[in-house]
Amino acid sequence: MRFGALEAGGTKMVCAVGTEEGGILERISIPTETPEITMPKILAYFQEKQISALGIACFGPIDLDHQSRTYGHIMMTPKLAWRKYDICGYFREKLNVPVGFDTDVNGSMLGESTWGCAKGLDTAIYITVGTGVGVGVIAGGKLLHGMQHPEAGHMLIPARADDPYKGKCPYHGHCMEGLAAGPAIEERWGAKAETLAGRPEVWELEAHYLAYAVTNYILVLSPQKIILGGGVMHQQQLLPMVREKVKEMLGGYLQTKELEDMDSYIVLPSLKDNQGIMGALKLGMEALEENH
Ligand code: ADP
Ligand code: ZN
Question: Which CATH class is domain 117-267?
Answer without folding.
Answer: alpha beta
